[in-house]
Amino acid sequence: MRRRDREVKNPEEILAIMRKCDVCNVAFFDKEFPYVIPLNFGVEYENEEFTMYFHSSIAGKKLDLLQDNNKVAFSMSCSHNLITGDLACDCTMEFESVCGNGTIEILGEEEKMPALTKLMNHYQPGIEHKYDERLFKVVSVLKLNVNEIYGKRLKKKGM
């Protein structure tokens, strides 16, 4: 990372940034260009490893691409605040972001509910989540095992 002064290394701080974000952009390998799609997600940090969860239809482009290559990159950002100046060069943006890469797998039927609960807890923590069992037949749940993760932030002093 070029701007070491903005780097976030502490895993708990990275997790806190991730919990503020509501969308994760995931880049899949496609033939000529990457295929990037915004996804809702859940995240956990256990045994010094980050794991992310996404839901999907049981068919579609991202699942087709995963069959050929399950390596992905991801990014998310939050806490945006434009800082203006007298000149365009004086403008900047406060932000917090997390980027990384890893491998995705499609979870088996017995793993879907616990993973979906982790995803739902990201958006509605502290409540019991109930599911329609019929929907489990038409949903895939993806698990991203994170290999590398990077946090970054810019917060102007006094703001």
Topology:
Layout: E1 7-8, H1 11-20, E2 24-28, E3 35-39, E4 42-46, E5 49-57, H2 61-68, E6 71-83, E7 92-106, H3 109-123, E8 139-154
Antiparallel strand pairs: 1-8, 2-3, 2-6, 4-5, 5-8, 6-7, 7-8
Give an account of the 3D structure.
This protein is of the alpha+beta class and 159 residues long. It has a single domain, classed as Electron Transport, Fmn-binding Protein, Chain A (Pnp Oxidase, Chain A, Roll). It is built from 3 helices and 8 strands, in the order E-H-E-E-E-E-H-E-E-H-E. It has helices spanning 11-20, 61-68, 109-123, and strands spanning 7-8, 24-28, 35-39, 42-46, 49-57, 71-83, 92-106, 139-154. Strands 1, 2, 3, 4, 5, 6, 7 and 8 form an 8-stranded antiparallel β-sheet that branches. It is globular. The two termini are 25 Å apart. The mean pLDDT is 90.
Strand content range: 35-45%
Rounded Rg: 18 Å
Helix amount: 10-25%
Low-pLDDT segments: none
Query: What is the CATH third-level topology name?
Result: Pnp Oxidase, Chain A
Q: What can be said about the biggest beta sheet?
A: 8 strands, antiparallel
What is the C-level CATH assignment? Mainly Beta
Count of helical segments? 3
Total count of strands: 8
CATH architecture: Roll
Estimate nothing, just give the exact number of structural domains.
1
| CATH H-level superfamily | Electron Transport, Fmn-binding Protein, Chain A
Sequence of secondary-structure elements: EHEEEEHEEHE
Class by SSE composition? alpha+beta
